[in-house]
Design brief:
By secondary structure, the protein is an all-alpha fold. The chain is built from 9 helices and 2 strands, in the order ααααααββααα.
């Protein structure tokens, strides 16, 4: 039985045409124009919407997105495409919201309490993705140093794969997966696994993301 609601078709062109500047929780992050190309509670699970069979035929593959390469911009756009096909207005059946499919609990951890404002603000959603990634990187920094370059369940561990998996499952689940060498696996409500995200999002350069314990999503002039 197909349970998910059909979401709006994704178009990346408006995101490329527009230009916004964000300021994040670190000074370096504030210098980058992220929008011109377009959690984390340890116990919070994330969900992503699966594609229906008819959607798979119509899907624009990641390889057809603008060539952002393996940069941070490429990383965040790839994650956003996987989560919602880049749709800022998406809310799935479990209440996860926006381009990156955030839950209310995670948004509160990075300083966002008004979900209506969040769903209506692409700039805030981009700021939230950076802040959440920054917080996850701080939580997982020791595991990143220990496991990057190792192979678990047939997949080489990379920093970007770890951060993508933390976005999916929360950093606590990723810690358990890594430290058990893949024995303690995780899949979300739609069957998406940590292994899948580690493989799909491997090899991106996420050095731009600075680890910060209390990272908050902050908009310019806020």
């Amino acid at each position: 039985m197909q349970k998910r609601k059909k979401i709006a078709k994704f178009s990346i062109l408006p995101a490329i045409a527009g230009t916004m500047f964000f300021s994040f929780s670190t000074k370096d992050a504030a210098k980058v124009d992220l929008e011109s190309f377009s959690t984390a509670n340890l116990d919070l699970d994330y969900t992503v919407e699966p594609l229906l069979e008819e959607d798979i035929v119509k899907e624009v593959h990641l390889s057809n997105l603008p060539k952002l390469g393996k940069s941070y911009l490429g990383f965040k756009e790839a994650v956003g495409f996987k989560e919602s096909r880049g749709n800022y207005k998406t809310v799935n059946e479990y209440g996860y919201m926006g381009k990156y499919q955030f839950g209310k609990g995670t948004l509160a951890l990075i300083g966002i309490y008004n979900t209506q404002e969040f769903i209506n603000s692409p700039a805030l959603q981009e700021a939230a993705f950076y802040a959440n990634s920054s917080r996850n990187k701080w939580i997982l920094i020791r595991d990143i140093k220990r496991f990057v370059g190792k192979t678990i369940n047939g997949v080489e561990v990379t920093e970007s794969g770890i951060l993508a998996a933390a976005h999916l499952a929360g950093p606590g689940s990723v810690k358990k997966y890594l430290r058990s060498w893949g024995a303690q696996a995780f899949s979300d409500a739609f069957g998406t696994s940590i292994k899948n995200y580690m493989q799909k999002f491997s090899g991106y350069d996420t050095s731009f993301i600075q680890p910060e314990k209390r990272a908050k999503a902050v908009l310019p002039n806020a």
